[in-house]
Design a protein that fits this description.
It is a single chain. The protein is built from 23 helices and 21 strands. By secondary structure, the protein is α/β, with parallel strands linked by helices. Among the domains are: 85 residues, Nucleic acid-binding proteins (OB fold (Dihydrolipoamide Acetyltransferase, E2P), Beta Barrel); 193 residues, P-loop containing nucleotide triphosphate hydrolases (Rossmann fold, 3-Layer(aba) Sandwich); 153 residues, Rossmann fold, CATH 3.40.50. The strands form four sheets. Strands 11-12-10-13-14-9-15 form a seven-stranded parallel beta sheet, sandwiched between helices. Strand 20, helix 19 and strand 21 form a beta-alpha-beta unit. The protein is globular, with a radius of gyration of 28 Å.
């Protein structure tokens, strides 16, 4: 049965599904809910329970429809025997006609309490009790229609999703049947069945990933051995204005040993914020260039690429290494000159963004490829850069990937398969730990008074917001533009304040960031665009609005923008106290924070290995403990001769999953 055979799927919806990678009934069934709503508990209308609630009652008066700057707002009050509750819908004008006075309705939504005032915001009308799945939005397909498509597809689950794991294997590792897992993952009959279903699907996804890595990861490509002078690493360290930490020294020696081999290096360098990964990467560039080949370093943003280039000019060019910068903003005339220098070899080290993998970019002899913040690149981008190094010889370049997202060592080895792992677990001497505090709303003014004092001492500050502009749908979430206007006219008036965000025009963004870097702006208000690539040792204050909306690892990265000099620095988390934020206040250890983050979110959110294809993902619904269990299972399958038949079957499935179905996997 084809996807188009389902009732309700015409040409428009077919294209909408195709746009999100759903090409078949199987893809549709493996598009699992992102969360579930519990429609089984009814709260009284007088409740002060903040968050998701379901209430049942009636409206005594007609709902009121009003408009504000083109946005609609429907308001009313639902009541039961316990009392009343205000209700509000934004941009759903039809709700004013859908509910008539006196009709009993059941509503499910999020109750917000602000300034002691309650409101049930954008609730849905509930017609069925129990667990209700919520899926990632698909344009042109309403949520209710998508759920209906899933129900129709489930009628064919046995045909389009046949069992993939042998019965003996399922029994040994306590896994339910696939058809049961898919049905319960979409419409669970109870919480226990949901756990069983999600475990089966997550276990299988992790299993095929790890098996495929183990089958394919061990085949290193041939590469040109790079023989720099024996003392090249020590010569490089003397180029820097500071001595290396023992961890930096050790990791560069590991890289040098890798590059002397006739097989391509594939090494991951992990380290906490500010540990000096870039200095190690520049050391690798130096070694490659001293061995007579070219090196390139690709960063995910122009800001970060430019920062690398400026530092390379200070460190590497005095040693005789020709460095250039290539990004999407490079002018045509300069780009033409750079391409010529790359092709004839006169440019030895190139820094840039994904512009480095453009079709017209040709290298004379690319021997080293470095990707910084590697998890921010797609699989094709990373592979495309490596392919630039093969040339006519067919030799692969040596590959170094950098990650500032610390991951516990055991998990890193599992996730990255064949990559050799180096960890920089020391911070440079003189670094002072950033002091982190949660700041409730009533302390906001005092915090800004402290920020002003720091700025008047000659320091600088960041203010980071989760959104660019205000939205009625996210009441209470502060936006960069609104905060910028407020601070400019109130708490921080008479200070020089700059504003930037991700989709800002490139020239405006560069102007804002450069003004902050050169000190002409004292405060930079932004979104998370400054999470990587902005290195200002003079900044000593980081303010994060609505800190509860960010993940722990991201908060740690943002905090890492301060504390890069020799002065004491502060990070203020504007939010009510939560256990999550308390973790950040209690430690500056990125690896410990990452471990806690994994416990809260699961590994699938931290590192994406498959970046196209169905939405379930290889780590859907899993956690670090389950990932470790699956890794042990793979080792047992390889060790136990009696399991050879099962191993052969499961490996065949893993190969088909990634190769026949066209899924992509990050081997780097």
């Amino acid at each position: 049965m084809e996807l188009t055979d389902l009732e309700g799927i015409g040409p428009v919806r077919t294209e909408a599904l195709r746009a999100v990678g759903i090409l078949s009934l199987r893809d549709l069934l493996y598009t699992l809910p992102v969360r579930y709503e519990d429609h089984s508990t009814v709260y009284p209308c007088a409740t002060r329970q903040e968050g998701p609630v379901m209430v049942r009652g009636s409206f005594q008066e007609s709902l009121k429809l009003s408009y504000f700057h083109g946005l609609s707002r429907v308001t009313g009050t639902i009541a039961d025997a316990s009392g009343k509750m205000p209700v509000c819908w934004f941009n759903e004008p039809w709700m004013a006609k859908n509910i008539r006075p006196g009709d009993e309705v059941t509503l499910y939504g999020r109750m917000n309490i602000k300034n002691n005032r309650r409101v049930l915001q954008n609730p849905i009308i509930v017609t069925e009790t129990g667990w209700s799945p919520v899926y990632r939005a698909v344009r042109q397909i309403p949520a209710a229609s998508f759920r209906k498509l899933i129900r129709l597809a489930l009628d064919n689950v046995d045909d389009c999703c046949p069992e993939t794991l042998p019965a003996e294997f399922r029994l040994r590792y306590r896994l339910c049947e696939l058809n049961f897992a898919i049905r319960q993952a979409h419409f669970p009959t109870n919480e226990a069945n949901l756990r069983i279903a999600r475990r089966r699907l997550a276990f299988e996804g992790m299993l095929v990933y790890l098996l495929y890595v183990s089958m394919n990861g061990s085949h290193r490509k041939p590469a040109v051995p790079l023989q720099a002078a024996d003392d090249a690493a020590e010569v490089y360290w003397k180029l820097l204005p500071f001595p290396p930490t023992s961890a930096q020294h050790h990791v560069l020696n590991e890289i040098a040993a890798d590059m002397r081999q006739g097989t391509a290096m594939a090494r991951l360098v992990q380290g906490d914020v500010g540990c000096g990964k870039t200095a190690v990467a520049f050391g690798a560039v130096y070694l490659a260039c001293m061995a007579g080949v070219q090196a390139c370093m690709m960063a995910p943003t122009e800001i970060l690429a430019e920062q690398h280039y400026r530092n390379a000019k200070k460190i590497l060019e005095p040693a005789g290494i020709s460095c250039r910068l290539l990004t999407g903003s490079t002018k045509a005339k300069e780009r033409k000159s750079i391409l010529s220098e790359l092709a004839d070899g006169s440019c030895q080290a190139i820094f840039g963004t994904h512009a480095l993998i453009s079709k017209d970019v040709e290298y004379h002899q690319l021997g080293l490829v470095i990707t910084d913040e590697q998890h921010r690149f797609g699989v094709n981008q990373r592979s495309g850069l490596e392919e630039k190094g093969t040339g006519e010889t067919g030799m692969a370049p040596h590959v170094l990937v950098m990650s500032a997202t610390p991951i516990p060592r055991t998990l890193s080895l599992i996730l990255y398969g064949d990559l050799d792992l180096s960890i920089i677990d020391e911070l440079p001497a003189g670094r002072i730990a950033v002091r982190t505090r949660m700041v409730p709303e009533e302390k906001r003014k005092a915090m800004y008074a402290f920020l002003r004092e720091e700025v008047l001492k000659g320091r600088q500050a960041y203010v980071v917001c989760p959104m660019v502009e205000d939205s009625e749908k996210t009441d209470g979430v502060r936006s960069a533009k609104a905060v910028y206007e407020q601070l400019k006219n109130n708490e921080l008036q008479n200070l020089n304040i700059a504003l930037t965000w991700g989709e800002q025009k490139t020239e405006d963004k560069e102007r804002a960031i450069r003004s902050f870097m050169d000190g002409s702006s004292q405060v930079l208000v932004s979104t998370t665009v400054i999470e990587v690539g902005v290195n200002n040792p003079n900044a000593t204050v980081m303010v994060i609005e609505n800190a509860e909306r960010f993940g722990l690892s991201q908060l740690h990265q943002l905090r890492g923008r301060v504390g890069r000099g020799t002065e004491e620095s502060w990070c203020f988390l504007l939010s009510d106290a939560t256990d999550k934020l308390q973790i950040l206040c209690s430690t500056n250890d990125g690896f410990e924070i990452s471990r806690k983050d994994l416990e809260l979110r699961g590994p699938g959110d931290l590192i994406g290995t498959r970046q196209s294809g169905d939405a379930a993902g290889p780590f859907a619904g899993g956690d670090a403990r389950l990932l470790d269990e699956v890794a042990q299972t793979v080792r047992e399958l390889h060790r136990d001769p009696s399991m050879s038949g099962i191993l052969e079957q499961v490996e065949a499935y893993a190969r088909a999953y990634f190769e026949e179905y066209g899924h992509q996997i990050a081997m780097n």
